[in-house]
């Protein structure tokens, strides 16, 4: 019998994940919150649903979206969620539906922004007090999910997402202040898709994992190279590292016996450069 996965928030990452799981034989349902996205999702072969999460309500076109073996929550805080309590309240609305439909396995896509920048390496458990409201909101949402005994949750804290049409050179364009030379914590979308797939296929639940490429080049090296490849202006860099953190993903690598497709973000830039020469 085919297993079913529902992806709440089928955007840039969720759609790629859904397509990959379809190829592996999963039945995939995906949710969006706009008509344009709905049409795009239907073309991909993923069963499309409309789900809109708000702090006070959850709008769903069909409850069958939540008839699933695994629910993947991939809805990051938006600018309107800057107040720390707004995003966790959205997650509370989702949790009510999870309990109502008796979903037993939940995977929550979080971010390394939950870690405080203490100029050192950080592992799971080293959260501290995140600088950004979005990081504090994600940390509260993680806690709501992990502490709920009605279902099992695994949390993946991804670094900054790169790959395909996400040109990293644009991340630092039009900045007035110099770019600090701190280590980057990035991960390619292919690795994200592989990691999520392996966790649900291996039934690894009740865990929190960091997921960032094991190598962390400096921002000066990475973004200068990205800008050069893209024929964009080289940003102004500072030799100062500023405040930073280095994400340690050893726990994930050990639990999954995972080998990153892109061990370093520089591997991705090298690939892009090679393709540019071929064209």
UniProtKB/TrEMBL annotation:
Gene Ontology molecular function: aldehyde dehydrogenase (NAD+) activity
Alphabetical list of InterPro entries matching this protein: NAD(P)-bd_dom_sf, NAD(P)-dependent_oxidoreduct
Taxonomy, superkingdom: Bacteria
GO CC terms of this entry: cytoplasm
SUPFAM superfamilies: NAD(P)-binding Rossmann-fold domains
This protein's name: Epimerase
Organism: Draconibacterium orientale
């Amino acid at each position: 019998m085919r297993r079913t996965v529902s992806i709440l928030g089928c955007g840039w990452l969720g759609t790629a994940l859904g397509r990959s799981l379809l190829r592996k034989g999963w039945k995939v349902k995906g949710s969006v919150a706009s008509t344009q996205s709905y049409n795009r999702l239907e073309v991909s072969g993923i069963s499309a649903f409309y789900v809109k999460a708000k702090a006070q309500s959850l709008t769903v076109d069909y409850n069958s979206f939540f008839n699933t073996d695994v629910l993947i929550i991939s809805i990051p805080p938006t600018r309107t969620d800057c107040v720390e309590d707004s995003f966790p309240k959205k997650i509370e609305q989702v949790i009510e539906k999870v309990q109502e439909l008796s979903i037993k396995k939940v995977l929550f896509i979080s971010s390394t922004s939950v870690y405080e920048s203490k100029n050192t390496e950080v592992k799971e458990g080293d959260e501290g007090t995140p600088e950004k409201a979005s990081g504090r909101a994600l940390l509260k949402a993680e806690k709501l999910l992990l502490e709920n005994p009605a279902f099992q949750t695994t949390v993946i804290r991804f670094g900054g997402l790169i790959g395909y049409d996400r040109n990293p050179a644009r991340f630092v364009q039009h900045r007035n202040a110099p770019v600090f030379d701190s280590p980057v914590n990035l991960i390619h979308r292919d690795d994200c898709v592989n990691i999520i797939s392996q966790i649900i296929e291996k039934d690894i639940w009740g865990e929190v994992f960091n997921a960032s490429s094991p190598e962390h080049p400096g921002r000066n090296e990475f973004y200068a190279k990205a800008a050069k490849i893209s024929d964009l202006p080289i940003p102004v860099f500072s030799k100062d590292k500023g405040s930073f953190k280095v994400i340690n993903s050893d726990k994930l690598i050990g639990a999954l016996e995972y080998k990153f497709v892109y061990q370093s973000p520089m591997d991705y830039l090298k690939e892009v450069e090679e393709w540019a020469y071929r064209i």
